[in-house]
Amino acid sequence: PYFHNGSVATLEEAVDVMLGGGKQNPHLDTVNLKPVELTDAEKADLLAFLRSLDVNYTVTEPTLPQ
What CA–CA distance (Å, rounded) separates 9 from 3? Predict the structure, then answer.
């Protein structure tokens, strides 16, 4: 369920793709997105941080003023 097209199934895969410099495509920003090497510990820390982010959205039906 990651990326706009669901091309990877897990957070680990998504992190690996981004650490590898992204997926090659004609619109890839190679100036700002470059491969990065992390130690196993650094990658584990990054994944732990990402998992700690909690986004709670409450969706309510819009109503018109009365």
Answer: 9
Number of other CB atoms surrounding residue 13 within 10 Å: 13
Please state the separation of Cα 42 from the chain's center in Å.
Answer: 16
Q: What CA–CA distance (Å, rounded) separates 19 from 33?
A: 9
pLDDT tens digits along 14-42:
999 999 998 888 988 988 889 999 999 99
CA distance linking residue 26 with residue 13, whole number of Å: 21
The span from the CA of 64 to the CA of 66, in Å, is 6
